[in-house]
Specification:
Number of strands: 12
CATH class: Alpha Beta
Largest sheet: 12 strands, mixed
Radius of gyration: 18 Å
Number of helices: 10
Bound molecules: S-adenosylmethionine, iron/sulfur cluster
CATH architecture: Alpha-Beta Barrel
Shape: globular
Strand order of the largest sheet: 7-8-9-6-5-4-3-2-1-10-11-12
Order of helices and strands: EHEHEHEHHEHEHEEEEEEHHH
Distance between the termini: 22 Å
């Protein structure tokens, strides 16, 4: 379906929990999030019905996210339910990968097509301090298991933190040398600009660096087109790609083709807007109408670059990236 600005909305990001087994410094408070009643969260059936309704409006790609989607109990069953929805052409998941190894085969068998794994460093100590409690070894085991399960090609997401992980840019980028054929099966390494929201909203400006720094650090990158909101680069002799996702320095609202649903069943037409529409308790034509209303009124753009602040009161673990 086209929104009022002619953008064709085909991509739904579905958050299935706001909880996580990690506490990334830029995403979650150190003490985690207050426990919420099960009744406050959308049920599997509600999430499936939202996907069914979204498909009738033209959505073709669904990404399961969180919080950490793999901490939601019964996640394999939910993936299976979503994969069965006619019209879903691609079912993907974004995960920190640390709980993935034992689940990769089951997720593939349930119908998951692809994975994005978030990994901000290849240094075990830095990984622990950036995630506050995660293990790099577990994340790498998850990547290997995904590759062995044929759950690929995997994309890696790396958030850039000025003064923290610039030295990781080259080692992470080098995972694209062998691409999907490499040990970790990484077809694309995407560097993402830190967005000022939630835990990091009040951080000093020097933490927020333009992803252009990647082109300075990794020699020989040449532009290779666009994949959704990602500006792609190639390097001669490398099988995989490098991607830059630059919401702050460049903005890509004109080509934004996505909507989001939070784990408590709120439709967010724009990541950085306060606007939300409750989908809880709706079904059939009412649910379709609410989604249609949200898509039509999708805000034209965010104002991160100007205001250096997101307008959403939610933190990223509540939205899903
Ligand atoms: N737990 C999963 C994971 O880490 O991949 C899925 C949810 S996480 C909120 C989704 C993505 O959002 C991750 O790649 C994470 O690095 C990114 N993210 C979180 N906070 C961010 C921020 N303030 N700016 C930019 N990206 C952020
Ligand atoms: Fe958890 Fe992902 Fe947020 Fe890290 S970025 S705290 S893994 S939800």
């Amino acid at each position: 379906m086209l929104d009022e600005r002619g953008r064709d909305i085909r991509y739904l990001r579905l958050s299935v929990t706001d909880r996580c087994n990690c506490r990334c410094v830029y995403c979650m408070p150190e003490g985690g999030v207050p426990r919420r009643d099960h009744g406050e969260m959308a049920t599997f059936e509600e999430l499936r019905d939202i996907v069914r309704a979204a498909v009738t409006l033209g959505v073709r790609k669904v990404r399961v996210t969180g919080g950490e989607p793999l901490v939601r109990r019964g996640i394999v069953r939910l993936v299976h339910m979503l994969a069965e929805v006619p019209g879903v052409e691609e079912l993907a998941m974004t995960t920190n990968g640390t709980l993935l190894a034992p689940l990769a085969v089951e997720l593939r068998d349930a119908g998951l097509d692809r994975l994005n794994v978030s990994l901000d460093t290849l240094d075990a100590d830095r990984y622990r301090s950036m995630t506050r409690c995660g293990s790099l070894e577990d994340a790498l085991a998850g990547l290997r298991a995904a590759r062995e399960a044929g759950l690929g090609p995997t994309k890696l997401n790396c958030v850039l933190l000025g003064g923290v992980n610039e030295k990781d840019i080259v080692p992470l980028a080098e995972l694209a040398r062998d691409g999907a054929d490499g040990e970790l099966g990484v077809a694309s390494v995407r560097f993402i600009e830190l967005m000022p929201m939630g835990a990091c909203a009040s951080w000093p400006r020097e933490r927020f660096v333009s992803a252009d720094v990647v082109v300075d650090e990794v020699a020989g990158l040449v532009p290779a087109g666009q994949d959704g909101v990602t500006q792609l680069y190639r390097r001669e002799g490398w099988r995989g790609t490098i991607g830059l996702i630059r919401p702050v320095s460049h903005g890509f609202c004109k080509t934004c083709d996505r909507i989001r649903v939070t784990a408590d069943g709120m439709l967010k037409p724009c990541l950085h807007s306060r606007a939300e529409i409750s989908l809880r308790g709706l079904s059939g034509p009412e649910l379709v109408a609410a989604l249609r209303q949200g898509i039509a009124a999708k805000p034209a753009r965010h104002h991160l670059g100007v205001a250096h602040a997101s307008a959403t009161p939610r933190s990223m673990n509540q939205i899903g990236g």
